[in-house]
Sequence to fold (204 residues):
Amino acid sequence: MAVRALIFDVFGTLVDWRSGVAREAEQLLAPYAPQLDGGAFADAWRARYGPSMETVRSGARGYVDLDALQAESLPAVLAAFGIDGVPEAVLADLVLAWHRLDAWPEVPDALVRLRAAHLLAPVSNGHVRLMVDLARRNGFTFDAILGAGYSRDYKPKPALYRDAVATLGFSASETLMVAAHSLDLAAAAQHGLATAHIARPREH
Fold:
């Protein structure tokens, strides 16, 4: 059966989260940590991403969006790097660095070509406002915005894949999950979706 809809992971697949967060961390934290290794900081912050989402996936707490989870994990990351005295306004702006990430170079043109024959939607752990900001920054044109904010849970929970298929209105086999992460693709495949892997640096 022909693929009719393409759904995309975003962080690492469509946008280069590591370079963007590293750049913003070095800029925003320069007065407090002038020698900061932005890449190491980005990696340390990202390492808390999965455990923070697991508190929602496990049912230990209700759904909270990714900005809230990133804000909650940020103090521990700062402490690990020996950074203190950062004003709340700077911390809030640093969380919004995840809204200002740049696309991998080929992505905007590729999405234009793909949209000529397919419906396109992100299925990301980012919430709707986050996806809108990234789309507007990078010129992405989506037909819908799905994912965590829509399904009120985090990948790889089944609801995100099932909701995407149901909302776009095609069968699972007509819906292709595109991601740089094997766990995401494996979860999509378990629910009957077609899958496509994109190789990206540091993503697996």
Observations:
- The chain has two domains: 5-15+103-197, 17-99.
- The domain at 17-99 is CATH 1.10.150.240 (DNA polymerase; domain 1).
- The radius of gyration is 17 Å.
